Amino acid sequence: MKKVEAIIRKSKFSAVKTALHEVGVNFFSYWDVTGLGNEKEGHVYRGVSYSTSDIQRRYLSIVVNDDFEEVTIKAILEAASTGEVGDGKIFVSKIDDVYRIRTGEKGGNTLK
Predict the structure, then answer these.
(1) Domain of 82: which CATH number?
(2) What phi, psi does 105 have (nearest 5°)?
(3) For 13, which of 5, 7, 31, 97 is 20 to 30 Å away at the CA?
(4) pTM for this predicted structure
(5) Is the CB of residue 10 less than 8 Å from the CB of residue 31?
(6) Is there a domain that residue 63 lies in?
(7) Domain range for residue 92?
(8) pLDDT attached to residue 72
């Protein structure tokens, strides 16, 4: 099992959610976050200068069986990309085990 964590633009959340549902990823957690990036220059929009390093983001946490790892990552990459600085990051880590609290069931079948 893998844990796929993604930090994306809030404006791309709807597209990412739809893309994940289309590939069969129907359960994940998310929350709003703010962070600082490496971008040092600001951008000007309608005469107002703003920094791209502290734009609001959405953090997604998704646990999938190994066979869903690549399709999950591909869906996020395609739906979240604008080609501009600040599109976000994806982190992948190994999950050793998972338990269903209600039944005590253990293993990958608990993700279904």
Answers:
(1) 3.30.70.120
(2) -60, 145
(3) 97
(4) 0.83
(5) no
(6) yes
(7) 2-28+58-111
(8) 98
Among candidates 88, 1, 72, which has minimal Cα distance to 37? 88
The Cα–Cα gap between 94 and 65 comes to 10
Task: Tally Cβ neighbours within 10 Å of residue 51.
Answer: 14
Residue 16: Cβ-neighbour burial (10 angstroms; 0-12, 13-18, 19+)? buried
Inter-residue contact 88 to 11 (CB < 8 Å): no
Provide the pLDDT for residue 85. 81
Full DSSP string of 44-75: EETTEEEEGGG-EEEEEEEEE-GGGHHHHHHH
Q: Is the pLDDT of residue 8 over 60?
A: yes
Torsions phi, psi for 83 (to 5 deg) = 85, 5
Residue with tokens 């844990």: 3
Asked, for residue 35, whether it belongs to a domain, the answer is no
Whether 102 is in a domain gets the answer yes
Question: How far apart are the C-alpha atoms of 46 and 59, rounded to whole Å?
Answer: 28
Task: Locate 67 and state its tokens.
Answer: 């066979």
